[in-house]
Amino acid sequence: MYVPGKLSDGSHVLLDVGTGYYVEKTVDEAKDFFRRKIDFLTKQIEKIQPAFQEKHGMKQAVIETMNQKIQQLAAAGASQMMPTKA
Description:
The chain has one helix at about 25-80; strands spanning about 10-20, 20-25. With about 90 residues, the chain is of the alpha+beta class. The chain has one domain. The protein has a two-stranded antiparallel ribbon with strand order 1-2. A hairpin with a 2-residue loop joins β1 (about 10-20) and β2. The protein starts with 11 loop residues before the first strand and ends in a 5-residue tail after the last helix. The mean pLDDT is about 90.
């Protein structure tokens, strides 16, 4: 949500640091806080990226195997439904 407003003190801002807690900081301290937060999150993403790629590969292999089995079952079902000549 966007709400226009004016700062009574442009040198200090309130930071939402999570779970309902706010901290008053100077603008430079706030910039530093967000720089550190971005660095932390970037490192966390880099850590989990290989695991995510491995899980994605496993999921694709499972989907492929399931599709093959479904095709086999469909082919087997179609051959059972065909009338045989006597």
